[in-house]
Design brief:
The structure is a single chain. The chain is globular and about 35 Å long. The longest helix is centred in the first third of the chain and has 16 residues. It is mainly α. The chain has one domain. The termini are close together.
C-alpha cells in the first residue's frame, strides 16, 4: 500500500465518523467519505488544500506526520 493509499484510507475512516455528525450533514449529502478523501488527498498532493480540518488533523496524528505542508507532501510522495 502506497503512502497516498494509506493516507486516503485513514482519512476515509475519519470522514465516515465525521459525516455522522449533524454539522457535516451537507458534506455527507454531497459526497461519500471515499470521494471526499480522494479529493482531499489529490488537493494536498497538489498543494492546494487546507490542512486545518478535523479529519486531516486526526489523520496526521494517526500517521505520525508533522502538521506542515512540507511533511505532508513528502509523506504523500514517498513510496
Amino acid at each position: 500500500m502506497s503512502n497516498q493509499e494509506r493516507f486516503k484510507s485513514v482519512l476515509t475512516d475519519q470522514y465516515r465518523g465525521l459525516f455522522k455528525k449533524p454539522e457535516y450533514a451537507i458534506a455527507a449529502k454531497k459526497n461519500t467519505p471515499e470521494e471526499s478523501a480522494a479529493r482531499m488527498v489529490d488537493s494536498l498532493a497538489a498543494g492546494s488544500a487546507s490542512k486545518s480540518g478535523t479529519g486531516i488533523q486526526a489523520t496526521l496524528k494517526i500517521l505520525g506526520i508533522k502538521n506542515t505542508y512540507k511533511a505532508i507532501s513528502e509523506y504523500l510522495r514517498a513510496s
